[in-house]
Structures are given as C-alpha cells and as structure tokens.
C-alpha cells in the first residue's frame, strides 16, 4: 500500500515549477509584483530527507540509524487568487503505524497580502519554533516545551493570515478541530489559535501566541499562551520562547515529529533560549538551553532541563550536516541519559 501511494504521488507531480507556503513544512511564498501573488498558474514538486544516527548514553547504550523526516510534496497555483499545497510524510519513524500519511493539504486564497485564507490540514499557528520550516530548524530536535505543549502540532481547520517574513507585522488566526491529523472532531466546539509578531527594529522581532479550546469534550477547556523573541545582529542570532498551558489536553495527540507525549499536570510551562554564530558561510555553532515542567503544582517531579551543544555545517545550499550533543540535567538523582545526534539533510 505504501509503495502504491508513493508511485501515484510521484507520477501525478512529475512536472513542476515554483512557489512555497509557511503554514506547511516549507518557507514563505516569494514576494510578487503588484497583487502579492504570481499572475500565472504553476506547480512545483519538492521534498527533503533527513537520515540520522542517534546514540543514547543510557545503561543499555542504545543507538540506531533512522529517518527524522522524509517528505514529498507538491505546491502551486491554479490562478491569480488560489494556491495549493500537499505534503506526505514517508518516514517509518514518524508515523505511529509506520505507514505513509497525509501531512499537510490546504488551499489558500491569497490574492491580498493582508487577508489570506487557508482551509485544510496545516500547522497550528502557535510559536516561533513550531512555525519554523522543519528543514530550517537550528537544532535537530525542537524544544521539549514546543513538542509537548503545542500538540497536536498539525490539525484540520480554517485560517486567516496576513503579512510575510518581508513585512514588519504578520498574523495568523485559525479555527481548528483540536484533535490532530486524520481524526474527526469528537465535540461541537473548536479550538481558536492565533499568533502575531512585529519587527521592532532591524535586529529584533517579538511575538505572542494563544490557544483556547476543548480538546476532548464540550465541558473541559484548555488555555495556552506563548511569548517569543528573535534577535539577528550581523552573524549572531538569539531566539527564545516561553509557553504556559493549563486545563484539559488530548492524551492521544502525538508530540512533534514522533516525540513521545508526556503525562501533564493541570498547569505546565517551559521555555528555551538558543544562540548561534555564523563563523563563515559554512560553519554555524549553536548553544541551546531549555527547561520544561510538566506539572507546576508538584515540585521537582516532571521537571526537565537540557543543554544542547551543536554545530551546523552547510555543504551547499541544499545539503546540511548537523551534530548535536544533548546534556540532560536532573534536579535530583543524576542518571545517564545524554544523547548524541547526527543528521544529514538534502532538499530538492
């Protein structure tokens, strides 16, 4: 079945051109001439693969080769007003059952730069790290708080958005099921999710996100807030986020990109800060500190800290090697649970 889906998908989209969409796993659409969108129809086949090796320094000293992601997609336009985007996840290590599945699939009315509308399956518009294209992540893994609290990271719904990475202000406001991909909503209420960012100075952008919804039924709600900043000064970059979450949550929703969901308390929160420096056009060292508290009401239980030391080496514009050492810090008894991750990425 997997082979059949892949062959059909590749055959359908063998002839392609160019365009891109930030609410999927790619970057922003390129700037246009007058109306904000290209004037003719087009289609582009795209994708990327991320084979990796990971070694966990536990008592059992586990290590394995795997795929972090292996994605194929098509994007394009049908006319001046409507664009489309479809992407499949083919990695056996992301899907819970090891099968190919539909990752993103949405249609966008984008004739006007500040009032675009998307409908279908796409990322929740919450947080800086979650909305960053997966192939552009600075570290191999997203922060624990991003994977655990912005879950499900993808869902079905409708979204209004405006602005691009070229504008000072941009926003997204979505109405979504709140249950995740491929799952029919089990209640009559929907999640409201939004994010806005503003470029205060040439080197500083700040933003915030919120979510309010009913993840399991019509009675128990969930509220989430997030704050973010991004500094880019010459070859130095610094970014950080804080996310607070309370109320009910969907225990069946997977964490981001195959991460294992944790049992959460009534109130939970976490944050990270990450710094990079471009030594030259190929070499970029990175340092990331993060913490996550899965239950704010219970002291020192479910609290995690981690430092990531890494380096990104850009072989060329489409190929990147990433090496990350994850130093996991315990507040109580120290255990052997650090990890070394190495990932090679190719885009096409």
UniProtKB/TrEMBL annotation:
Q: Name one Pfam family in it.
A: Porin_O_P
User: InterPro entries, alphabetically?
Assistant: Porin_dom_sf (IPR023614), Porin_O/P (IPR010870)
Q: Which Gene3D superfamilies match?
A: Porin
Q: Which UniProt keywords apply?
A: Signal
Which PROSITE patterns does this entry report, sorted A to Z? PROKAR_LIPOPROTEIN (PS51257)
Q: Does the keyword Ribosomal protein apply?
A: no
Secretion signal span: 1-22
Q: Which domain of life is it from?
A: Bacteria
Protein name, entry field: Porin
What lineage is on file? Bacteria, Pseudomonadati, Bacteroidota, Flavobacteriia, Flavobacteriales
């Amino acid at each position: 079945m997997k082979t059949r889906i892949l062959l059909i998908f590749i055959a359908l989209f063998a002839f392609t051109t160019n365009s891109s969409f930030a609410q999927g796993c790619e970057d922003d659409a390129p700037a246009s001439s007058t109306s904000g969108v290209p004037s003719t129809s087009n289609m582009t086949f795209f994708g990327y693969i991320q084979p990796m090796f990971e070694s966990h320094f536990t008592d059992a000293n586990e290590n394995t080769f795997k795929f972090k992601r292996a994605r194929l997609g098509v994007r394009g336009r049908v006319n001046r007003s409507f664009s489309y985007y479809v992407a499949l996840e083919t990695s056996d290590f992301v899907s819970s059952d090891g099968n190919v599945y539909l990752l993103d699939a949405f249609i966008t009315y984008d004739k006007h730069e500040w009032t675009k509308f998307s409908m279908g399956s796409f990322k929740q518009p919450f947080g800086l790290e979650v909305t960053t294209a997966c192939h552009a992540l600075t570290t191999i893994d997203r922060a624990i708080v991003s994977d655990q609290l912005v879950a499900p990271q993808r869902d079905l719904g409708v979204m209004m958005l405006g602005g691009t990475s070229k504008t000072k202000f941009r926003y997204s406001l979505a109405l979504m099921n709140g249950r995740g991909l491929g799952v029919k909503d089990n209640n009559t209420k929907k999640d409201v999710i939004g994010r806005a960012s503003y470029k205060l100075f040439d080197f500083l952008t700040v933003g915030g996100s919120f979510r309010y919804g009913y993840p399991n039924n019509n009675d128990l709600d969930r509220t989430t807030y997030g704050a973010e900043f991004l500094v880019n000064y010459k070859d130095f970059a610094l970014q950080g986020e804080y996310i607070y979450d309370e109320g009910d949550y969907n225990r069946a929703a997977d964490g981001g990109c195959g991460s294992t969901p944790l049992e959460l308390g009534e109130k939970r929160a976490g944050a990270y800060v990450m710094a990079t420096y471009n030594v030259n056009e190929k070499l970029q060292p990175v340092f990331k500190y993060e913490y996550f508290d899965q239950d704010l009401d219970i002291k020192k239980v479910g609290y995690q800290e981690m430092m990531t030391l890494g380096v990104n080496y850009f072989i060329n514009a489409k190929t990147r090697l990433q090496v990350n050492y994850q130093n996991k810090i315990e507040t109580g008894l120290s255990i052997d649970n650090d990890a070394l991750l190495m990932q090679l990425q190719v885009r096409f």
